[in-house]
Amino acid sequence: MIQLVPIEVTVNGRARTIEVAAHHTLLDVLRDDLELTGTKECCLVGECGACTVRLDGQIVDSCLVLAVEADGGEVTTVEGLADASGALNPLQQAFLDYGAAQCGFCIPGQLMAADDLLRRTPNPTVAEIQEGLAGNLCRCAGYEQITEAVQAVAGGRDR
Amino acid sequence: MRAFSYERPTSVADAVALLAEHGPDARVLAGGTDLVIRLRDGSASPTVVVDVKRIPELDPAIREVDGWLVIGATTVMTEIAADVRVRRRFTALAEAAAVVGSVQIRNRATLAGNLCNASPAADTAPALLTYAAQVVAAGPDGGRRIPIDELFVRSGVTTLRRGELVTSIELPLASPPVGSAHVRRTRRRGHDLASVTLACAVDASGVTRLAYGSVGPRPLLVVDDTGVLANPAAAESERAAILEHMFAEASPSPRSMRAGPDYRLAMLRVLGWRALATAIARLRDGRLAAGE
User: Fold this and answer.
1) How wide is the angle at C-alpha A143 spanned by C-alphas A50 and B258, nearest 5°?
2) Which chain B residue has the Cα nearest residue A69?
3) Which of B16, B51, B90, B261 has its CA 20 to 30 A from that of A109?
4) Percent composition of chain B: helix, strand, coil (DSSP 3-state, to 5)
């Protein structure tokens, strides 16, 4: 029997009251119920980071979080990075400028992890970028460009 | 994922009652970084999932109580790796917590979950073994303290009884300061499971405690109290003989994908020497090891 649980969750600044199945993950609910398909489904074992979102201030693999666990919480997805007018944030723009997105599938997760890294470490070294993004795999192997994009934003903030 | 019912108790007593009632049909949910994978692949199929993260008694703040550093059942790896007391006094644990999974995983994965999952490759287990940590559990018949070395049986199996819930992991602050280090070998840098994971702690009286995992069905603790291993001036052949003896029980599985037994046994020795040297240097320098 499927148990439905009412939850209250703020997603990209908008408060929502929804009913979720107890066995559905946060990833399922974001994509299927809220139609926020920027967050990608890929490995489903917490290895690839394509489903990375921010939950209560910390990035998580949303494939490993049950939706009910987010009850009362605040979620930011890649859709929440651009401003209300749709203008890209500096990190998104840098990913474009440096050719960091090839096939693009991993990029929502890469952006969420890079955004988190820069909040914690505004001026990361290359090693810190690699460690901060170690949970995000890019099958196109665009790691160099991704690292350059993150560095460019960090440097830009400094100046 | 197969459907299950979700329970969110708000007291340890309620959680224990649920676990006792449902026995093997219930699973504890803390960080979910192991459990949700198993729920999805069907290797765990509970009818009830008991989420313990909203239990106020399981305060995630790391605190000092009666000579113990108390790490709650809901404390995550990110918090442990960043805690100044853990980094100074229980350096190997901080180092191990910092290499579990990725940022995303460390933000969710709990120390208690890492232990209860009882993976032979659990990175935090060797460090806790070298510090003689204790696991505090609440159960239908009350609470008990389990020396960490008595927790592990084999992969996925612990000595926890029906209805028991780990409420904290406690590290002794009263014992003499140690120099300690955690090292591991993985296939790739970054996010990977360990092919060998090892911790070493040396104290001022010359006792060396070495613990290692991913080379047998459970992590193992071995102790040298002759003072020879902790003494860099002792003859290398003598020290090597002691180290060999300490690794005698390692029995890596020939079926593992990550690395073959010969490689693991070779790396066990390399990592053993490396961690020993770092632990001795840290004890000598008093850096990151003194209680302060």
Assistant:
1) 70
2) B51
3) B51
4) 35, 25, 40
The answer to whether residue A70 is domain-embedded is yes
Tokens of B111: 């120390």
- Block residue for tokens 């997805």: A77
Domain end marker among A80, A113, A143: A80
Question: Residue A148: what residue type?
Answer: E
Q: Which residues of A touch B101 (CB under 8 A)?
A: 46, 135
SS3 of residue B171 by DSSP = strand
- End-to-end, the C-alpha distance of chain A in Å comes to 58
Cβ atoms of B281 and B273 within 8 Å: the answer is no
How near does any CA of chain B get to the CA of A130, in Å?
Answer: 8
Asked: is B1-55 a CATH 3.30.43.10 domain? The reply is yes
Residue-wise pLDDT tens digits, B127-151: 999 999 999 999 999 999 999 999 9
Pairing of strands B26-29, B48-51: parallel
Q: What is the pLDDT of residue B189?
A: 74
Domain count, chain A: 2
Q: How confident is the model at residue A157 (pLDDT cuts 50, 70, 90)?
A: low
Conformational region of residue B286, where left means phi above 0, alpha means psi within -120 to 50, and beta covers everything else = left
